[in-house]
Amino acid sequence: MRDPRLLAKPPVCRLGCLVLVRNPRGEVLLVDPDYMDGLILPGGSARPNEPPHEAAARHLLATTGIARRLSHVVAVDFTPADRYLERLNLVFDGGTVTDRVAARITVPPQHRSGLLGARFVPEKQLPAVMAPAQAARAAEALTNRMVPLLLHGQRAA
């Protein structure tokens, strides 16, 4: 039985689905958005009812050309509302790509993607190229703690 009061005024919260990808040297893949200062982990918002691991994989493929199956979360970051809606960001483990895959990363044209480029950055340089909150999120994701993503109590494939 559905209670109509539960859907009368649903909460508004953006679900960010990001991916931590490394190369064989442990450097972190970051993208350079034209709409904000600093580099960020690749990813974007989930669509309504889109599973977060599928949203993260979709954004990673669209912005870098890297196809990955994602199943484990390495960080969860809640950001209260400020000038934007409140946000819950899930960072997925995208694993390590080979140098061959890294060399083939392609960022779509800026007018379509809003991105100026992508590059791998050494972990120690993250605070210098990312906004403080973004760098802290990436640092937590790099601690190698993982939590499986569950969909209705079952592990996401």
Keywords:
single chain, 157 residues, alpha+beta, two-stranded antiparallel sheet, 26% helix, globular
| Average predicted confidence as pLDDT | 90
* Cα-based radius of gyration, to the nearest Å: 16 Å
Main sheet: strand order:
3-1-5-4-7
Approximate strand percentage: 25-35%
Distance between the termini: 29 Å
In total, the number of strands is 9
General description of the model:
By secondary structure, this protein is an alpha+beta fold. It has helices at 4-8, 52-64, 99-103, 110-113, 126-129, 132-141; strands at residues 14-22, 28-33, 43-45, 72-79, 87-96, 115-121, 147-148, 150-151, 154-155.
Give the arrangement of secondary structure elements.
Elements: H1 4-8, E1 14-22, E2 28-33, E3 43-45, H2 52-64, E4 72-79, E5 87-96, H3 99-103, H4 110-113, E6 115-121, H5 126-129, H6 132-141, E7 147-148, E8 150-151, E9 154-155
Parallel strand pairs: 1-5
Antiparallel strand pairs: 1-3, 2-6, 4-5, 4-7, 8-9
Short synopsis of the structure:
By secondary structure, the chain is an alpha+beta fold.
